[in-house]
Amino acid sequence: MSLRHFLTTQDWSRAELDALLDQAVAFKHSRFGQQLAGKSIALLFFNPSMRTRTSFELGAHQLGGHAVVLAPGKDAWPIEFDLGTVMDGDTEEHVSEVARVLSRYVDLIGVRAFPKFQDWSVDREDRVIKAFAKYATVPVINLETITHPCQELAHVMALREKFGNLDKKKYVLTWTYHPKPLNTAVANSALLIATRFGMDVTLLCPTPEYVLDERYMELARQNVAESGGSLRVSHDIEDSYRGADIVYAKSWGALPYFGRWQDEAPIRQSHKHFIVDEAKMALTNNGVFSHCLPLRRNIKATDAVMDSPACIAIDEAENRLHVQKAVMAALARHTPSR
Amino acid sequence: MSLRHFLTTQDWSRAELDALLDQAVAFKHSRFGQQLAGKSIALLFFNPSMRTRTSFELGAHQLGGHAVVLAPGKDAWPIEFDLGTVMDGDTEEHVSEVARVLSRYVDLIGVRAFPKFQDWSVDREDRVIKAFAKYATVPVINLETITHPCQELAHVMALREKFGNLDKKKYVLTWTYHPKPLNTAVANSALLIATRFGMDVTLLCPTPEYVLDERYMELARQNVAESGGSLRVSHDIEDSYRGADIVYAKSWGALPYFGRWQDEAPIRQSHKHFIVDEAKMALTNNGVFSHCLPLRRNIKATDAVMDSPACIAIDEAENRLHVQKAVMAALARHTPSR
Amino acid sequence: MSLRHFLTTQDWSRAELDALLDQAVAFKHSRFGQQLAGKSIALLFFNPSMRTRTSFELGAHQLGGHAVVLAPGKDAWPIEFDLGTVMDGDTEEHVSEVARVLSRYVDLIGVRAFPKFQDWSVDREDRVIKAFAKYATVPVINLETITHPCQELAHVMALREKFGNLDKKKYVLTWTYHPKPLNTAVANSALLIATRFGMDVTLLCPTPEYVLDERYMELARQNVAESGGSLRVSHDIEDSYRGADIVYAKSWGALPYFGRWQDEAPIRQSHKHFIVDEAKMALTNNGVFSHCLPLRRNIKATDAVMDSPACIAIDEAENRLHVQKAVMAALARHTPSR
């Protein structure tokens, strides 16, 4: 039987995703279990984390397991990912060794590895987590690379708590301004999961340059073909918000500008009015607002929106704990006892 | 019922403090319990820690709980504390979100946040931990900000182990030299706890500029009015040490010089003779010496004093473990099961 | 009874080492136990770690204990090791306090402290771990200083898994190139453990300047006198590899060049041909290859060697978990219950 990973929700059937969400709801009602008794997970953070680290570490503990948190390049050795390299640079060991050794120690490996933001054609290969998945002999979990599937599950769980069935809900994924060009991971993920669950999805962004990678656009089109939802791109704020049930915000850098961000900055700065505010939310169908966090207040969304009852970002963040426990439990079911 | 925090010992009655100390003594005799079974604590360190981190992490574990250690701005996202800010600077998320999300994950939140040392009028507002206490929906514990209440309990526990009843003991809190202008937290705390427990307290410092913030001086005066102790300020080393039962040392920067430390440095450097040495200790009533640690040897106290039987700093440090378990257990008693 | 540490395998009798290895084999078959129930270990990392940290943290957990990971100078206070110093420099506390306080909290202390690489006559004193062993009142474990005894046990365990009895096996410890002048710790350790277990050991290095410290050469000579093995130094690659059963590779800086590495660099760079490759391995007696990791591929050993069945480096890395649990269990047996 081939090894099962949690790299993207697209590798999991809709029935499997529903089962994960059901298990997450069960964990929300009753936090403790023995699904990871005697098992362990290594959490590799190539980038900062607060929610992910806390919720995975606690989640493993609550299921009887143990999490080891590692920061390669900071308190562990920097890692090489290319094949065949003569390693005379900064990296001290190859992912092949790291993944194989960790697989001897632990039962699951989680990896957070953001893009380098220099060349999208490189970043879109997502080679760090793919290398771990290639060499590890235990399941690998995506803690955010160029998608963020754990966030997807937490997000859709929060939406279900609010709406129940999500078919044909009007869902707006809106770009917002941020002083730095950010990762597209959560935006890609929002597109995938919203289309997967049959919603009518609008991708709202300033210009065509801010449309997401065609790989994710195409997957989203395939998803709506199966799920019965729809997908459109819009640059019209008022039209997008009108009648929306769900507004999900995220900032990201425009893909054509990777590596020459000084050229993108003035475009980004000219669209600060994409901020989610009360006026825009008033156009919705008494819609809810969410965001993956961290969120810069009064940049991405106003204090008024963040502090309103419509904001379910804290619920979504809480759900990270529950869905990730469901993912760990599902993957660990198939790992051998030591 | 409103949420109970452990931000300062002044919020806890003398009977409550005595109960915490009794519980700490019980934990010293028998380390293990289930008071935190199924519970967890997030420990947020904005500044370095050795004793605090080790003793809280172990203490939670010994009571059946789990501690997650986070370093915001280093391996987690930098946090904004001001209200209404347009967050276009370095901070990536607001304490409102951090505190509310952590409250969904954990049952207790510990926060270490030292002053910035630029403007005492700002630092004295202690806004980091106050913001956590404001937004968190679980109890918040002070791991040292501008006071250090856990150290207070460990200190008074060590003194009781030595003396039993502390009423009317002659207690000297002496300033000492240190190459850097340090936090007044432990000095403020020593003043509070020594006056609270009815001791005759002398604050010994080089000049009137080194007297502590009037807020703590006034609380100390209120404390002695209730406890039957006394409080005086002295700049006379020999007179202060003579007949003392307890010498507690701490270095701190003079409050009027915050933000212009180059002006304070020569004053500080001219008072290196405040070092605790054998000659000074010989003036005491066979007194004990303690310090919160870390301590620079032969700067704050000589090797001879540190290595003498009179030094109870190691006992005080050990007691951190016991008193903090008592604090966690007391606060967790009122948190809901998940 | 005097305190037992695990600072070097030379302090442990051959029978004791055999018992540790037997226990490690037992742990490899059955991972879980209660040998550390209610006990804890502080892991102090003055340098980065991946395998050591993960395997110790997990190992303690699997035996019912708890590990606290500390990084002095990074997230804990910088520590002074000299005696009698007037501490007006960068260090904030003395090892005497750190070791004594940690001994009150935990039952075992592990220390990783690499040399400073400026002056070998200083580094060879190994004063960091010796200071911890001097002041601690609990056992201290060497996590790599100027030797690496945990690696030794993992290494010899892997060799026994392959060969059974190791008497008179032909063992080559070969120097290899690395862009930086590295620690001699694993090389010293390989020399000690291979001679201890009765092997015919060749130390292969580019020039006499790369021979290891006379302290370890002399211990190795004493070891072979007792164990029945042999020791020779060679600068002839082909002669050394011919008929070898075991090739163990490590790079290190030449001792006479400590502190003036610019002079050593050209010598080191002129010996890149010491890389372990298929041609060299073909000279052996169908020998195995190993390395302590991290390893720079195509610098110390080629991809072909690393990915060949002859490479047992991953097994050796796995064994770190098992042997370290055996060491912790052996030391904790004699620590008092709290």
Shape of chain A: globular
Which sequence of strands runs across the widest sheet of chain A? 9-8-7-10-11
Let me know the number of strands of chain A: 11
Mean pLDDT of chain A: 96
Biggest beta sheet attributes of chain A:
5 strands, parallel
Give the largest interface pair and sizes.
Answer: A-B, 32 and 31 residues
Question: Which class of the largest domain in chain A in CATH terms?
Answer: Alpha Beta
Strand content of chain A: 5-15%
Unreliable sequence segments of chain A: none
Keywords (chains A, B, C): Amino-acid biosynthesis, Arginine biosynthesis, Cytoplasm, Transferase
InterPro entries (chains A, B, C): ArgF (IPR043695), Asp/Orn_carbamoyltranf_P-bd (IPR006132), Asp/Orn_carbamoylTrfase (IPR006130), Asp/Orn_carbamoylTrfase_sf (IPR036901), Asp_carbamoyltransf_Asp/Orn-bd (IPR006131)
Enzyme class (chains A, B, C): transferase
Main location (chains A, B, C): cytoplasm
